[in-house]
Design brief:
Among the domains are: 154 residues, Rossmann fold; 108 residues, 2-Layer Sandwich (GMP Synthetase, Chain A, domain 3). The protein is 33% helix and 25% strand. The chain is built from 17 helices and 27 strands. The chain is globular. Bound molecules: adenosine monophosphate and 2,3-dihydroxy-benzoic acid (DBH). The site of adenosine monophosphate has 22 residues, from strand 16, strand 21 and strand 22. Pfam families: AMP-binding (PF00501), AMP-binding_C (PF13193). One of its GO terms (molecular function) is acid-thiol ligase activity. Keywords: Ligase. This is 2,3-dihydroxybenzoate-AMP ligase.
Length: 546
């Protein structure tokens, strides 16, 4: 168990840490110092446009200071964790920078998460606070806060952006600035906990330090051409690692540019904002990029300010990449990243084959990439293997999860990404698929095991196997093969509706449910789940092709 008052640590071996410092990757920058300095240097420039809000850097800084002092006045103590679940609203960044300033540690939840996921984050992080919007995208998060408080998990403070009802209103936060820490945090301390998609079971918490994360987006800025003239549209959920840091909103703040928040990634909404704010850069998952490319042909909006469209989160096939480029007159950049660290980009001046056909190469000369076989032996370039990585912004362990750490890291500190890749001679990676049974549904990573666990709790479900099925629009969809308990089987919509009552994110609800009489067992006896899923998927696809 972690003492709330001891800053969480994430440690690299001394020799590697010395190397990362000597190379200038880790510069001792921290988030509070970053905003203070930008507020000074870019004071009257626009930092954020979201809804009716339009804040300068000075305004963002002022709000973050007020929130920080207010949270400490409410009794939260530096080092404690606070789950943040806000949509794409300006307050998201004021809250996050406020937490950094107070020495509190944000834990990033997505708007789609529900009580099951949030309770898991609160438990794992031993969170003391929870910040939500009153309503977002038609959902009332105050009901979620009430459910959580009833679980008695140690949450002491709920702060609401908007109508707070019985909770603390963000707008009411106030505190004596003397409460604020006098010194900037240790740049090696953990600034926040990001969440993983979770390949086995529930999401894991990813501790990122000031030094490592700031390096990742500062270096991304150079690769992506972000400057103080950049106007970046956050079309994906703001808390996701991609629009946050690759180079994302934080990269743009580092450069002194403008971040524009879109309440939805739908073309109608996003295109109007692009035209109005003269947006230059944005990032999307593949299905959205295809949708945008199609919608661009007939839009009345002027998209001519767009310079770079980044696509990542799931595999963009060469054919899809070609369609994106044909539909949108912008530079395409493929991004293959992970909240655990390693981010790869195609470079803006790469040749067309590289941009269309690869997922890029790492940010840093100190990113170590290994592509290995089943025995852990490196395979030659051009052959497919498991991707392992270690480097100046890749974590060395998850937060409070020994079992996951034993599985996910090698003895010498390489992170097992779970991705199968092929490395080209120039170091460019081509993603081939995954080693684990997780489903990448339009960039949302979903653990097959987690969905199976929920379905197994259904009274009429005897057994279940959840697999990914290729899908034209989503990339992959969730298919659940269900053995009913009796002939009186529930209807698929009933199962879906029931799963909704379990308090899980809607993107985890199976897209398709197929009833089967039995799972055939191999001669060897008990089949592994992994083999079973692979066989069910193969049989299903073979039948579909008939
Ligand atoms: P997470 O660990 O939840 O942050 O998810 C990161 C994972 O998303 C990676 O390990 C990949 O499996 C997947 N991913 C991200 N970007 C791409 C991409 N451009 N192509 C293929 N897979 C991707
Ligand atoms: O999918 C991801 O997690 C991801 C994709 C692109 C990511 O974390 C990133 C860039 O930083």
């Amino acid at each position: 168990m972690t003492d709330p008052l001891i800053p969480l640590r994430q440690t690299w071996p001394a020799d590697l840490a010395a190397r990362y410092r000597a190379a200038g990757h880790w510069r001792g920058e921290t988030f509070p110092a970053l905003l203070r300095e930008r507020a000074h240097r870019f004071a009257e420039r626009t930092a954020i446009v979201g809804g009716d809000e339009r804040w300068t850097y000075a305004e963002l800084h002022r709000r973050a200071e007020t929130i920080a002092a207010g949270l400490l006045a409410r009794g939260l103590r530096p080092g404690e964790r606070v789950v943040v679940q806000l949509g794409n609203i300006a307050a998201f960044y004021a809250v996050v920078f406020g937490l950094f300033r107070a020495g509190l540690v944000p834990v990033y939840a997505l708007p789609a998460h529900r009580s099951t996921e949030i309770a898991h984050f609160v438990r794992k992080a031993q969170a003391a606070g929870y910040v939500v919007a009153d309503r977002y995208d038609g959902f009332d998060y105050r009901t979620l806060a009430r459910e959580l408080l009833e679980l008695d998990l140690g949450l002491r403070e709920v702060v609401v952006v908007g109508e707070a009802e019985e909770f603390t209103a963000l707008a009411s936060l106030a505190g004596d600035p003397a409460l604020l820490p006098r010194e900037d945090p240790d740049p090696q301390s953990v600034a926040f906990l990001q969440i993983s998609g979770g390949s086995t079971g529930l999401s894991k918490l990813i501790p990122r330090t000031h030094d490592d994360y700031i390096y990742s987006f500062r270096a991304s800025n150079a690769i992506c051409g972000i400057t103080q003239d950049s106007v970046y549209l956050v079309a994906l959920p703001a808390a996701h690692n991609f629009p946050m840091s690759s180079p994302g909103a934080l990269g743009v703040f580092h450069a002194g540019g403008t971040v524009v928040l879109s309440p939805s990634p739908a073309p109608e909404t996003a295109f109007a904002l692009i035209a109005r704010e003269r947006v230059t850069d944005t990032g999307l998952v593949p299905p959205l990029a295809l949708l945008w490319a199609q919608a661009a042909a007939s839009t009345p909006h002027d998209l001519s300010s767009l310079r770079v469209l980044q696509v990542g989160g799931a595999k963009l096939t060469p054919e899809a990449a070609r369609r994106v480029v044909a539909g949108l007159p912008v530079k395409l950049q493929q991004v293959f990243g992970m909240a655990e660290g390693l981010v790869n980009y195609t470079r803006l001046d790469d040749d067309e084959d590289t941009i269309l056909g690869t997922q890029g190469r790492p940010i840093s000369p100190d990113d170590e990439v290994l592509v290995v076989d089943d025995a852990g032996q490196p395979v030659p370039d051009g052959e497919v293997g498991y991707l392992l990585t270690r480097g100046p912004y890749t974590i060395r362990g998850y937060h409070n999860d020994d079992a996951a750490n034993a599985r996910s890291f090698t003895a010498d500190g390489f992170y097992r990404t779970g991705d199968m890749v092929l490395r080209q001679p120039g170091g460019y990676l081509v993603v081939q698929g995954r080693a684990h049974d997780h489903i990448n549904r339009a960039g949302e990573k979903i653990s097959a095991e987690e969905v199976e666990d929920h379905l197994l709790a259904h009274p009429q479900v005897f057994d279940v196997a959840v697999v990914s099925i290729p899908d034209d629009y989503l990339g992959e969809r969730i298919c659940a093969f269900v053995i009913p308990r009796s002939d009186d089987k529930p209807r698929p919509p009933e199962i879906k509706a029931w799963m909704r009552t379990r308090g899980v994110a809607a993107f985890k609800i199976p897209d398709q449910i197929v009833f089967v009489a039995a799972f055939d067992q191999t001669a060897v006896g008990k089949t592994s789940r992994k083999e079973l899923r692979a066989r069910l998927r193969a049989e299903f696809l073979a039948n579909e092709a008939k």
